[in-house]
Each structure stands twice: as C-alpha cells, then as structure tokens.
Amino acid sequence: MKKKILIIIGIVIAILVVLFIGTGFTKNPNVEVINYSVSDDGSTINFTIGIPYSIGYTRGYKNQGGGVKSHYLDFYNTFGVINSSWGAKFDYVLELDEDDTEVYFNRSNGGYELVLQKTDSGEWVKVVDKYKDYELVKDLQKNEYASTKILVKFDGVLYGKSNAIIDYAGGAEKIGVINKLIDEKYVPELNNETNTEEILNAEVYNKTEDSIVLLYNNEYVLFGKIK
Predict the structure, then answer these.
(1) Given this model, what pLDDT does residue 158 score?
(2) N or C terminus of the chain: which is more exposed, having fewer CB within 10 Å?
(3) Bridge partners, residue 124, by sequence
C-alpha cells in the first residue's frame, strides 16, 4: 500500500513539474508594443510590451529572422500555471543592423504581424501610428468597374484594378512609377502608393480622366478611378 501511495505521489509530482515547465515553451500571440526607443547610434531598439486582457506574461523572445531587413520575434510564456508572473519581463532590447527595416511579432494563426517599421527617412515607427490617418480597405464602397482591394494612388486619384480587358500596345510616354508599398489592409493615401506587392515599381502610362495604365509583370493593365 505504501509503495502504491509513493507511486501515485510521484506521478502527481511529475505531472505538476511538466505543467509548470511546459507553459514556458508555449508562445504568447497577444504581445503588443507599448513604448519604444532607438539608441543614438541606431544599433538597438528598446521596447516595452503589454498583453491585452492580461492573457499571460512573457519571459523572453526568440528572433526567427536572424538577419538583415526583417526580424520575426516569437514571444514565450512564463513558467508556471496560467497567468503566472514568475520570471515575467516587460522590457526588451533588440539588436539592429544598419539595413534592418521591420520587426514582426508572432500571432495566433501561426504567422506574424508587422509592428515596427523603419521609414524612408530612417525613423522607426509603430505601424498602428503609421496608418492612423489611412482608410481601411474593408470600408471602401464597392465599385462595379474596378477592384476595391488592389489599389494605387496616383496624381491625387485613387485607382483600382479594372475588370475590363484592354488591348494596349504601348508607345505612350511613361509618366510615373508606383514605388511605395503599404499594408494590404489600408487604402493608399499618398501619391505613388499601392497596397499590393505585385504592383510595387509598376510604371504608369496613358492617364485619362477616369483611368491609368500600369505596366508590371510585362503586361499593361488598366486601373479605373475609384475616387
């Protein structure tokens, strides 16, 4: 009997140990940037994180990017029971290379969300701040003649990829380039912006009152005026 009791106690302890340690190897997909600052020499970015609705605490992160341009950070929960604050960290430091431009945080769908980005002027900004004045694509009124998802802004006018097929042989003079990429969730606000990576660096031709022609992927594509 005593032996059985000891075995049961051992099993319970083992389960508790596994539960205690195991949580520390699970990812927390709800981390958000609260505050951040960049060192004077641009070699590090210091940031404070928060977790909405008090869904756990983090003990550290692993940088899955590990290189130039983009950093992909996976944040890990603290050890212990759910919402254990043992070993919790709120302030983190990320080392930067000169050519780094983006910082992503892990999310629940297994992917990553862009949270910090370096602008063309060299300033690091929170993405939510960068797009605070931008309209959301989902709020655009549907257009019968052009897509309200594949968008460009040129010469003060918003255009969407047209549903019409054109027979355009070229020959017109190039009048611009779509050379600024924004998040696909947002409507382009500034001239030469697009929310579609495929269109980045497309050349602009043959502008009329209601349309423009873009050249990308070796094809001329009609874009109709949205507003």
Answers:
(1) 96
(2) N
(3) 118
Say yes or no: 119 and 189 in one domain. Answer: no
Taking the whole predicted model, whether its pTM rises above 0.90 is answered as no
3-state class of 200 per DSSP?
A: coil
Q: How many domains in the chain?
A: 2
Spatial distance between the Cα atoms of 200 and 222, rounded to a whole number of angstroms: 15
Task: Let me know: does 17 contact 11? Beta carbons within 8 Å.
Answer: no
Domain that holds residue 47: 2-130
- Token duo for residue 130: 């960068």
Q: Within 10 A of 16 (CB to CB), how many other CB atoms are there?
A: 11
- Both 82 and 180 in one domain: the answer is no
pLDDT in tens, 124-181: 999 877 787 889 999 998 888 888 999 999 999 999 999 887 776 567 789 999 988 8
On whether the CB atoms of residues 221 and 161 are closer than 8 A, the answer is yes
CA distance 38 to 124: 8
Distances (CA, A) of 72 to 20, 36, 47, 102: 27, 17, 15, 9
Using alpha carbons, select from 101, 81, 221 the residue that is nearest to residue 152.
221
DSSP label at residue 52? G
Indicate if 191 and 119 belong to the same structural domain: no
**Alpha carbons 19 and 81: distance in angstroms, whole number:** 7
